[in-house]
Write a structure and sequence with these properties.
The protein is α+β, with helices and mostly antiparallel strands. Among the domains are: about 95-265, Orthogonal Bundle (Penicillin binding protein transpeptidase fold), CATH 1.10.3810; about 345-500 and about 525-625, Beta-lactamase (3-Layer(aba) Sandwich), CATH 3.40.710.10. Helix content is about 35%, strand content about 10%. The strands form five sheets. Strands 4, 5, 14, 15, 16 and 17 form a six-stranded antiparallel sheet that branches. β11 and β12 form a beta hairpin. α20 packs across α21 (about 485-495). The longest helix has about 30 residues, at about 25-55. It is elongated. The relative contact order is 0.10. Mean pLDDT is about 80; it is low at about 1-15, about 135-140, about 155-160 and about 670-725.
Length: about 725
């Protein structure tokens, strides 16, 4: 038995059962199992982590960059854009203002599956990961939701951390905000080049129309530009932009948003040329600065003004503003203009609305606004305030005053223009011919403070430079109001004594359409209507019979006053019709800003208020009042109008005096001896070194064919083109 067992064992190695031989190696099975478990664990963990992160993700407030909107300023019509305040050009609009074709163009270019995904594109993410890992371009799968999340809530940095936050925020947004809201916000925040933030600004910048008027072809151009606003700029790479445009149009066909037949009819649209001119050039910067100051005065803060998306309707009339610039070009001097400053301001009586201004040649090159700056002495344009004050005291136009030159009053000695003597004259004659000696005597009678008070009531600010110098030179215009202040003061006369502070803003609407400010004129009664009607009558005679004869060319009733300062450092023409009050000033400065004589400007030895300023005023008023009826002023109260042949004096008592005329003084004879050539200085206190004087009435009268320029003895300015002061 034993031998047989050994023999049996000596036969070789025993084989394992067949069942064990067919089984897989234990190690391989364990590895596969653990791989599957690990992957599933990672996925589950990732989902859990993502879910937790998503749950903890909150949608913050949009950053300042994307919520800021430019304040848009409109002309007086409330529709035509004048310009914008602040650096942003953004104006947010609802999605309903974006044509459906334009929406489709943007989706075709940027995110064709926008309405199907949950904020992110897995395919896009995988593509981005691959490119980033393999060293390709650093890119993200930027769905529209992701782009908006990045622009509105995150930074532009290219890091994995920012990318993860972007994905989380995009996903979160899709749960709390509708697709339409996301698309609307995206279109209002994306940058399109040409300084245009948002589709509304882009539509204006590239095509000059609001988004609501874009065609499908134009919308496709804007959609194409989104990819590379600078690289695909039409002025830089028009061919590249056209290629991208074709890609967008073809994609719209693929998506069924455009039929092949419609596509076949499309053509690349015409794009506006990029203007190199500064957006504040010409008068625009002056106008916008005045609007901004008005908003500040109304209580709006700088953040609201610069980034709050306000919609502001200004008082500026576009046609009148063009007329102001054209008037300076046409009727201003064309030679000797170095250092010359011209200011113009037009105010609507009864409302205070500033209709137009001329601040200077170009805001970009010189931001000093000559229409609002207080730098030029007013000269004899100040005399109507004394006239109003005298009228209030019962001193009529027929009263007689000494008109000789030189004249000494209360220790002060004055000259008339050209040292001309007139003898005794009525107050009306003194107004017509701007006789200094008569008006200084008048001021002495009624008081310097009374004259200053009348000027302040009319609209001259109490802090006007020189207005606090209360001596007899005040009536001759030694103070320096702005052109705007003088236009406003004369508007008080035009409104029969009702004074309204000037304004440049009539309406302010918030970005959501809420009314924030609505202008309502608040008038104060500065003068009795009879007083003002008397002043207006006298200033009307200045135009028909006196130094303001140039305004006769307007062809409608007007009241005005000229002003020319001593040494010819400034010249004014201020006047009004019932519809409009306008002030024009000219002054000259050297390179240090010091006033200098205007002698030689435009070829004239002396630039008076009745020369270039009157010509500019008349030229402007012709255009600004075009289409408006020619209105008469109210008649003055009874007793104001006197016969035109009233004598200033009579030779002896008992000589006949025309009916209705005041009894003049008796002067046996007049002396024609030469007048002194200089002013004697006998003041009790220092007299300003520069005492304004005024132009004498022209003789002979200008011809009807060319009534707007000065006496024929001086070089005529004609109708030159302004040199060096064109906007």
């Amino acid at each position: 038995m034993a031998t047989s067992k050994k023999a049996q064992g000596s036969g070789g190695t025993r084989r394992p059962p067949a069942r064990r031989a067919a089984a897989a190696p234990p190690r391989k099975r364990h590895w596969l199992r653990w791989t599957i478990v690990t992957v599933l664990g990672v996925v589950v963990l990732g989902i859990a982590v993502f879910a937790i992160a998503l749950a903890r993700t909150t949608v913050p407030s949009p950053n300042d960059l994307t919520t800021s909107e430019a304040t848009v300023v409109y002309w007086a019509d409330g529709r035509t854009e004048l310009g914008r305040l602040g650096d942003s050009t953004r104006r947010s609009i609802p999605l309903s203002d974006v044509p459906l074709d334009v929406q489709h163009a943007v989706l075709a270019a940027e995110d064709r599956g926008f309405y199907d995904h949950g904020g992110v594109s897995p395919v896009g993410i995988a593509r981005a990961l691959w490119n980033n890992v393999t060293g390709g371009s650093t890119q993200g799968a930027s769905t529209i939701t992701q782009q908006y999340a990045k622009n509105a809530f995150l930074t532009q940095e290219r890091t994995w951390d920012r990318k993860i936050r972007e994905i989380l925020l995009a996903t979160k947004l899709e749960t709390v905000v509708s697709k339409d809201e996301i698309l609307e916000n995206y279109l209002n925040t994306i940058y399109f080049g040409r300084g245009a933030d948002g589709i509304e600004a882009a539509s204006i910048a590239y095509f000059g129309v609001p988004t609501s008027e874009l065609s499908v072809e134009q919308g496709a151009v804007l959609a194409a530009i989104i990819k590379s606003p600078s690289g695909l700029a039409p002025e830089k790479d028009l061919a590249g932009l056209k290629a991208r445009w074709s890609y967008v149009m073809d994609a719209m066909v693929e998506q069924g948003w455009l039929t092949p037949a419609q596509r076949a009819k499309t053509e690349f649209p015409k794009i506006k040329k990029l203007k190199a001119k500064d957006r504040l050039g010409g008068q625009t910067g002056f106008l916008l600065s005045m609007v901004e100051q008005q908003l500040l005065d109304q209580g709006f803060d700088e953040t609201e003004i610069q980034r709050g998306g306000l919609r502001v309707t200004s008082t500026f009339d576009q046609a009148a503003q063009k007329a102001a610039t054209a008037a300076v070009r046409k009727a201003g001097p064309d030679s000797g203009t170095a250092g010359l400053r011209i200011g113009l301001a037009a105010v609507r009586p009864g409302t205070g609305e500033v209709v137009a201004i001329y601040g200077g040649p170009d805001f970009v090159t010189d931001q000093i606004n000559n229409a609002t700056r207080e730098f030029a002495q007013a000269g004899s344009t100040f005399k109507p305030f004394a006239l109003a004050a005298a009228t209030e005291k019962g001193i009529g136009l027929s009263t007689v005053w000494p008109g000789n030159s030189p004249a000494t009053v209360d220790g002060y000695t004055f000259n008339n223009y050209g040292n001309r003597s007139y003898g005794d004259v009525t107050l009306l004659k003194a107004t017509e011919d701007s006789i200094n000696s008569a008006y200084v005597s008048l001021e002495s009678e009624i008081g310097v403070d009374t004259v200053a008070d009348a000027a302040i009531r009319a609209g001259v600010p109490s802090d006007t430079p020189g207005l606090d110098d209360r001596n007899l030179t005040l009536v001759l215009g030694t103070s320096s109001p702005s052109a705007l202040s003088m236009a406003d003061a004369y508007a008080t006369f035009a409104a029969r004594g009702d004074r309204v502070s000037p304004t440049t803003v009539t309406r302010v609407v918030g970005p959501n359409g809420g009314l924030l400010y609505d202008y309502a004129p608040r008038a104060t009664s500065a003068f009795d209507p009879d007083t003002v009607d008397t002043v207006t009558y006298a200033l009307g005679k200045v135009v028909t019979d006196g130094t303001g004869f140039a305004a006769q060319a307007l062809g409608r009733p007007a009241a005005a006053k000229t002003g020319t300062t001593d040494d010819n450092k400034s010249a004014w023409f201020v006047g009004y019709t019932p519809q409009l009050a306008v002030a024009v000033l000219m002054a000259k400065e050297n390179s240090d800003g010091i006033p200098v004589s205007m002698a030689g400007t435009g070829g004239l030895e002396t630039v008076t208020g009745g020369s270039f300023p009157a010509a500019i005023w008349t030229t402007f008023m012709k255009s600004a009042l075009d289409g408006l009826p020619a209105l008469d002023f109210p008649a003055p109260p009874p007793g104001v109008i006197t016969p035109s042949n009233c004598p200033a004096s009579i030779a002896a008592e008992g000589d006949p005096v025309p009916e209705g005329c005041p009894t003049p003084p008796v002067v046996p004879e007049f002396s024609n001896a030469p007048e002194p050539s200089a002013v004697a200085t006998l003041p009790p206190s220092p007299v300003p070194s520069e005492v304004p004087s005024e132009t004498a009435p022209p003789d002979p009268q200008p011809s009807a064919s060319d009534p707007q320029f000065g006496p024929s003895s001086q070089p005529q300015p004609g109708e030159p083109t302004q040199e060096g002061v064109t906007p």
